Amino acid sequence: DDAGRTIAEWNIADHVAITGGGGGGPGGGGPGGPGGASEWSHGNSIYVDDGKALLSLRWQNAVVEVEADPDSPSFGDINWILTGDDSDLDSDFSWTGGGSFNGQHHARWTASGELSVFDNREMGDDSRALRMELDMSSMTVRETHAWSLGEHCDIQGANYDTVFGGFMVTCGDGGWGAVINPATDEAEWEVDISCSSSGGGGGGPGDGGPGVLPRLMPLFNW
User: What does the pLDDT look like over 127-167, one tens digit per residue?
Assistant: First the structure.
């Protein structure tokens, strides 16, 4: 609350079965958490709107919607689970057209009502800014737009929409960001971030420099 007191807590283990060895990834395989800690889900983003929270669980390749209003009798209930690739969790949706996502970050709703994620994908695959349409009546999901960054961005990353219908994307470990026009799939502008403590800046799409830029976000409607 405004005084900094915790008024409610939510634990995923109260709602789903935690399986595997906890090292990261389905069945417990993978790199785990910071410092080599055992980690089953790797929750990396939360987006709250109208009393509901979207959670991104990287090692489970899953996005989960949870009732987030602490005053609601259904607080903490999972409304649905969407998985993009192999997961210990069961998805409530089926894909149409062969879509997927893997190792995602930054799950959120767009202004048009689509689900957006930064689709990091597997090592060696180019990361994507991905938008999806979820049909709650048929419980199906399909990709509506995907923009390839031209390189793999393994650490963090973000994908915001803009008021003109485009989107702002950040390659976390590449150290660069760009605003993309979806009509042309071309960058309206790009930025490289350099920091003396991280060893330098990015280099733009395709270059993958050593800088780290976890988030680049609009501060107002523009």
Answer: 999 999 999 999 999 999 999 999 999 988 999 888 878 88
> Cα torsion for 217, 185, 54, 80, to the nearest 10°?
180
DSSP 190: E
Q: Is 172:202 a contact under the CB 8 Å cutoff?
A: no
Q: For the chain, what percent of residues have pLDDT higher than 70?
A: 81
Q: Alpha-carbon distance 139 to 80, whole Å?
A: 10
Separation CA 205–CA 76 (nearest Å): 40
Strand partners, 147: 129
Output the CA–CA distances (angstroms, integers) from residue 215 to 37, 41, 76, 77, 145, in the order listed.
24, 21, 28, 29, 21
Half-sphere exposure of 61 (CA within 13 A, CB side): 21
pLDDT score of 196 more than 70: no
